[in-house]
Amino acid sequence: MSRIDVNKTYKLFIGGTFPRSESGRVYEIKGANKKFIANPALASRKDLRDAVVAAKSASSGWANATAFNRGQILYRIAEIMQGRSEQFIDEICLLEGVSNKAAKLQVEEAIDTWVWYSGWCDKLYSVSGSQNQVSGPFYNFTTPEALGVVAVFAESKPSLLGVVRTLAPVIAAGNSAVLIASESYPLPAITLSEVLATSDLPAGVVNVLTGKVSELAPWVGSHMEIDGVDVAGLSKKQEDEIKLVGADNLKRIHRFSATNHPERILSFMEHKTIWHPIGI
Amino acid sequence: MIIDGSESSLKKFLAELSPVDQVGAEARAVMLATRSIKTTSKAWAIDTAISMIDLTTLEGADSPGKVRALCAKAVRPDPTDSTVPSVGAICVYNDMVKITRSELDAIGGKDIPVAAVATAFPSGRASIAVKKIDTQDALDAGANEIDMVIDRGAFLSGKIGEVFDEIKTIKEICGNKAHLKVILETGELVTYDNVRKASYLAMLAGADFIKTSTGKVSPAATAPVVLVMLEAVRDYFALTGSRIGVKPAGGIRTTKDAIKQLVLVNETAGSEWLKPSLFRIGASALLNDLLMQRMKLRTGHYAGANYVTVD
Predict the structure, then answer these.
(1) What is the distance in angstroms between the Cα of A204 and the nearest Cα belonging to chain B?
(2) What mean pLDDT comes out for the span B24-37?
(3) Is A134 touching B (CB cutoff 8 A)?
(4) For residue A63, what pLDDT is reported?
């Protein structure tokens, strides 16, 4: 008699735990060969609300952690991912139908992306901050600070790298994130959430939702607690809609090219200028 | 009369109360918490809950400035929306009563009562003489409601006559001038049976309200405890014909928590109790969450903490 496989239930990642959708809904995803792969959770707007609550409560702790500590944790994520690379490779092959070699390259690039952004955590402040000359007996400094809660619509393809290169700069800045995984390629994002849960990343700093992007996008756009959005995974039309409703609370809404760049971190930061009297 | 005023008749009455079915009470509280309240019912529940809040600040760091800010919030919880009702009352320490009263009167909150926590709040560890002066002091300053704590030490060691007399004494001082709320501090009473006994004890001694907790002890207003107290006021009404109010306080922070409390009230004591004169919620952080939920219903999108006032 053959053994029955014990298959994983793909769940959401909210506030450091792995709940099902409060709606109880799931949806079907198929691989490149049109065969059934899994039934991940179909997140509702209430799951989004819960994820934002979790992100908000985690944001001050993460933003106030030392930049050095944040860098260490991002590096730790890379370490844990390395140990899980086989699982990522399998999922990428299944979903995208690419060769094992191409999948391996993608995983390695994703891991290297974490390392690259981890290095930026404590260097941003000297690169982007400044000491300004003013006409008076004052020290005058400008320094970047995290925005707060940023929603990330991950790119669909490449399915793992598309998640990492949108997510990593957001949390490197000290923001907490609500990641909305690609609708058709969500597995690497879910597996990444299992990596994040075991990487010393404080609960709630990253929350991962799977489901219909078109259903969640309007709620992300109008949510007053979300301060920024990376619209990589949205169509131009959806991006415009989000920009329209997002104007209400002056959301920073960005779309970047596929390269890694410190500007991706700084776009989700605000610059604060401090005046301090000299000699006191 | 249910009791003749002697300690022995009081003891006999309390001893004959049926014990609380602990598992049953907890299961029923859990079951009632699963009710789904949506759309127009939710809008009604939010406004009702706001009008029932005893907006509270009981910190060592309280200052006249903080109390004034709280008064403004009590009268007009959401400055951007005049349809939001005022809260049920403001609850402060004795020394802040005067300033609270005059501030409320000055900014259009004449109808909002001021509650003072008297009788050596929160521990209640002072002589009766001090507690009497404490109460009189609050009344003189203009308090409309007195939140007194019972002597839990005496209650737990069986000196219920002492507790009874203390409540009675404070009630006499309050007279018609102020409502008396009796804080049982259920977190220190250990069992539901004790909660039921203390509820009856307070009601027999003349309480207008029975209140769960000071907010300084955890656990505070858990659902089963509130359920037991609501059953007590319901049964006391059947027995005597007078309606006593209930005030859960402490640990009620979200709109969901507040709506659960309203469901408990409706299903246990009945809809008669769903008004600020018979049900209050002691809270501070809750109000902001109610306001955010109200904004969500009004505007259709989720609100943020930056759009309500900071306490």
Answers:
(1) 17
(2) 94
(3) no
(4) 97
Cα separation, A125 vs B26, in Å, equals: 54
* A37 backbone dihedrals φ, ψ, rounded to 5°: -115, -55
Phi, psi (deg, nearest 5) at residue B231: -60, -40
Token pair, residue B139, equals 């009344």
CATH fold for the domain made of B8-298? TIM Barrel (3.20.20)
Query: Domain residue spans in chain B?
Result: 8-298
CA dihedral B101, B103, B104, B107 (to 10 degrees): 160
Q: Residues A156-200: pLDDT tens digits? A: 989 999 999 999 999 999 999 999 999 999 999 999 999 999 999
Instruction: List pLDDT tens digits, range B110-155.
Output: 999 999 999 999 999 999 999 999 999 999 999 999 999 999 999 9
B interface with A, Cβ–Cβ < 8 A, is 300-307
Q: Which stretches of chain A drop beneath a pLDDT of 50? A: none
* One-letter amino acid for residue A261 of the chain: H
Q: Which residues pair with B149 in a beta bridge?
A: B183
Pairwise CA distance, residues B174 & B209, whole Å: 13
The pLDDT value given to residue B183: 97
- CA gap B231, B269 in Å, rounded: 6
A249 in contact with B, Cβ within 8 Å = yes
Q: How many CA atoms lie within 13 A of A90 on its CB side?
A: 6
Residue of A nearest to B307 (CA): A224
* Whether A224 contacts chain B with CB within 8 A: yes
CATH superfamily, region A39-277:
Aldehyde Dehydrogenase; Chain A, domain 1 (3.40.605.10)
Contact B55, B283 (CB under 8 A): yes
ipTM over 0.85: no
Neighbours of B204 (CB within 10 A): 20
In the block, tokens 């027999």 appear at B204
Residue B37 CB partners (closer than 8 Å, separation 6+): B45, B259, B263
d(CA A241, CA B239): 62
Using a CB-CB cut-off of 8 Å, the residues of chain A touching B302 are: 49, 52, 219, 222-225
